[in-house]
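Q: Make up one entry.
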Amino acid sequence: MTKGIDVKLMRKQFVPILSAFAIIYSCSSNPYAPTNKEYKKQAKVFVKSLTDIPPVSEIGKPAQYPVGTVNFNLRKPNYVIIHHTAQGACEKTLSTFINKKSQVSAHYVVCKDGTVHHMLNDYLRAWHGGVAKWGTLSDINSVSIGIELDNNGNEEFPEEQIKSLTLLLSKLKKDYNIPSSNFIGHSDIAPLRKVDPNAFFPWKKLSEYGFGNWPDAILDSVPDNFNSVQALRIIGYDTKDSLAAIKAFKLHFLQKNNDSYLDDSTKMILNNLIKKY
């Protein structure tokens, strides 16, 4: 009888202690445990909002009772925007994205060794595009997935990193049926502010896998009435500052220089690409 009481007493004493050790171990083994907890907390707020039946509208004549449709699903992303971090280390980017003061984020971060960090559910809106425009779209964040590649902005992208990126893009393209032309760079949507991903990014190689467009090897001559600015606009570039748009175009498709001069060969590339968009 005494032994039974002792066992119960020991359980009472040690269970809380073991639980505390488990929490400490969990936090020590995962340095992002506190911010993961905050992620879940914020996500629950959205879950509650989504699961509540829409209330009776206060606009116009009040309805007699609330009614929710049964025909709906989640909105899905239709673009992928590729960035480089310009921070020099993957851990710095992760730290930036879990810091509320930074006000920036992305859905994925791909490290140089090929490690992929999925930081935000694909259906949620990350803050990666900023002030940007592509075609008629001015709220890029609401329709896109943001991918950050660990790169200081002046170096090549390692093979393992590009391999992981290609696998990730394949999954995203399949999951959300994203058109090939909708894989673009940050500099494409924000030519006045951004130059990422840098000139070493293998756009041509990715286009061979179906991620982004690339000009054909054989190009037609340019018509006499060819309008370069209009062609840039057809592709998607914001031509409010046409010189910035030309630089962004050349960074993506020529990758040799980013001046604002359009020679005949560059116009031929531009002429070829407008048929693909």
In short: The longest strand covers residues 79-84.
